[in-house]
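Regression check, flavin-adenine dinucleotide case 289:
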Amino acid sequence: MTLPVSLDEAVAALTAMPAAVPVAGGTDLMAAVNAGLLRPAALVGLGRINEIRGWQYQDGHALLGAGLTHARMGRPDFAALIPALAAAARAAGPPQIRNAGTLGGNIATAAPTGDALPVLAALEAMLVIVGPGEPGTAGSAGTSSREIPVSHLLAGRDMLRPGELIGFVRVPLLHAPQVFLKATGRTGPGRAVASVGLVLDPARRGVRCAIGAVAPMPLRPLEAEQWVASLIDWDGGRSLAPEALDAFGEYVAAACVPDQGEPVPPGVLHLRRTVAVLARRALGRALTS
Ligand SMILES: Cc1cc2nc3c(=O)[nH]c(=O)nc-3n(C[C@H](O)[C@H](O)[C@H](O)COP(=O)(O)OP(=O)(O)OC[C@H]3O[C@@H](n4cnc5c(N)ncnc54)[C@H](O)[C@@H]3O)c2cc1C
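Current build output:
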């Protein structure tokens, strides 16, 4: 395994060995190797690249390194910055997974149950992709960089090209309540049956919400978001009648879990109820925090 100490070196290693695969915490990748689903010709380990293990501030945004572990994101200083992402990180698997698993791995795997994903979708996060390029272009020597919305990668509209890596994730700092909730259908840690990331954006008088695990990528119920945002008294107490909260939950659930014909199968009804409860609770918590 090659162990570069900078993004430039990692990109160079991947470019020199087109069959090599990047590995961060290995929690997803090694599970696939152990299950016989993957036989990488070579590995490029990202664990020694310090520049992607922390974060920095940039123009009202946080630039998060792709190598941030779930355990690091769950700590109080990070939670003060991006509370919903910290809550998602705390909910991601057992401690040994949170200690090794990374933000970049969660995004690149793009599993429907990825806990960070609905939060990043609600935050409308951007990915900074680094890859091989001409010296002097956007990146440093020998690398270039481009930015894409996280939703484009998750929807498969923008794929990572050979030699490319997720370097950073750019997230707006909204300084307003935000919530992540997850239903696992069992007690204790587990993969999400449904999850919700919800953020308030007072500057734009917006509510942004994404539902995870019910579809291949997080779903944004845009009409429900706009409808409920128009009911909120943004200059006053930001309160909402209980009936409006209930209606928001139902609106989100109907948008994200379609009927699939009559009679609606019990599993679909149950999932829809779960999503309605998660969305209603998330908005209620955000408005009262
Ligand atoms: C027992 C168990 C429980 C789990 N529970 C949860 C859970 O509750 N919630 C949840 O969200 N996840 C869960 N996971 C999944 C996993 O832990 C996360 O998805 C984790 O964030 C993956 O990160 P990683 O660093 O380990 O990725 P790796 O396994 O190292 O890599 C995963 C994929 O991403 C690619 N990759 C990694 N980093 C980059 C990068 N910077 N740029 C481009 N590609 C990259 C790799 O090539 C590989 O294809 C669980 C996994 C296990 C084994």
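Comparison notes: The chain has a mean pLDDT of 94. The chain has two domains: 54-109+124-172, 178-287. No diff flagged against the previous build.
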